[in-house]
Specification:
Helix content is about 30%, strand content about 30%. It has about 230 residues and is of the alpha/beta class. Strands 6-7-8-3-9-10 form a 6-stranded mixed beta sheet, with helices on both faces. The protein has a 4-stranded antiparallel beta sheet with strand order 2-1-4-5, with helices on one face. One adenosine-5'-diphosphate (ADP) binds next to strand 2 and helix 1.
Length: about 230
């Protein structure tokens, strides 16, 4: 899905230049469930933003299904994101004045594939809550809405930036299990930044980042199921 070669990125502030991504070379397979770990400030979010087409200021080669993201202009990047990419964040980013149903419907406007809101809500276990507003939902339920809104686009890749960071551990487990099921069922590639060690166990592979570099890439021989 992704072939990344010698990816570099730095921020300049006058004379001071700060290297945020440092010579990253890695490939990411279709259908993979990849976790990214690393301390705060190690470049994880920046890496996600480059892969997801939110950040075009980088050096090196980032190929998505053979297409060079570095060659895209802003308009092509918007099209690339709309066609292929969904993001899930720790803070959910739901629209407070819209119901669960309507929040997911927003995602549907962005795709041409004809999946139904009700079907997706059933899949994430929110069918009976579809008329509620975000402030009537628990944290786990809100994250399910965000997942439903991502999924209805029919993305090839879902990026998750600390998706369970605001959730208690048993709710976090349920959200993880849902993402894993969707990854398997839809063959959608999931690339996730996390501190959650539990989650790392279910990934196919995890990358450790430090100071903008990949320290290690570890394959899980046997991905454990969450119970
Ligand atoms: P992580 O997600 O691992 O916490 P980030 O990718 O958010 O790391 O940040 C990596 C580094 O880049 C940090 O040192 C951060 O301060 C710096 N950084 C992020 N955004 C900017 C920016 N807009 N301008 C300057 N430095 C930035
Ligand atoms: P889709 O499921 O593809 O979005 P529709 O918009 O036609 O298709 O709606 C499907 C079902 O959802 C129908 O049963 C409809 O009554 C119900 N529905 C439509 N709009 C809303 C809404 N804003 N809130 C809750 N349910 C809705």
């Amino acid at each position: 899905m992704y072939s990344i070669n010698n990816l570099n990125k730095h921020y300049s502030n006058g004379e001071i230049s700060h290297q945020v991504l440092n010579d990253i070379t890695v490939t990411i397979g279709t259908g993979e469930f990849l976790a990214i770990l690393g301390p705060s400030g190690s470049g994880k979010s920046t890496f996600l933003n480059v892969l997801g087409g939110l950040d075009r200021e980088f050096e090196g080669n980032v190929l998505f299904m053979g297409h060079d993201l570095g060659s895209y202009n802003e308009k092509q990047m918007v099209a690339f994101r709309r066609e292929n990419i969904a993001f899930i964040f720790q803070e959910y980013h739901l629209l407070p004045t819209l119901t669960v149903y309507e929040n997911v419907k927003v995602g549907q406007y962005l795709n041409k594939k004809n999946s139904s809101v009700d079907e997706i809500l059933e899949k994430v276990g929110l069918k009976e809550h579809k008329h509620k507003f975000p402030n009537q939902l628990s944290g786990g339920q809100k994250q399910r809405v965000a997942i439903a809104r991502a999924l209805i686009k029919g993305p090839k890749v879902i990026f998750c930036d600390e998706p369970t960071g605001a959730l208690d551990s048993s709710t976090a487990k349920m959200i993880m299990k849902l993402l894993l099921d969707l990854n398997k069922e839809h063959n959608v590639t999931v690339i996730m930044v996390t501190h959650n060690q539990e989650l790392v166990k279910i990934s196919n592979r995890y990358i450790r980042m430090m100071d903008g570099r990949i320290l290690s890439t570890i394959h899980n021989k046997q991905t454990s199921d969450l119970d």
